[in-house]
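Structure ticket #2291
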Amino acid sequence: MAPIILVSAVVGGVVASFLPLGNVPLIVAEGQAQLTIHGSGSFQPDDGVTALLPANVWWTDSSGGDHVGGRPSCLWDEKDKGNENKWSRVEAGYRWMKMPSGGSYPLVAWLKCP
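Resolution: structure written out below.
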């Protein structure tokens, strides 16, 4: 019995080492994005369904620097009076999230400022 368990463990470890971990492809599109004063917002691709834009999204600034969280530099800031809910042109990566109930929705995982 011990040899069967040992062989099973070795085979399982080899198979598991070849499985992809954390490599989830994103749909990358250009479109318009906005954030609310509370930080979250939405992204509207030029040819797609509106996606949820979370407050702590990974984003790339116009010089190529990466950031996590904070307000992306190309999106409206609550300090800019008169520009409330202003849409900005961006590139974003999003994916469809499956819900336990069977439904799904698009969620932005990355945003790039021009």
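Closing remark: Residues 5-19 have pLDDT under 50 and may be disordered.
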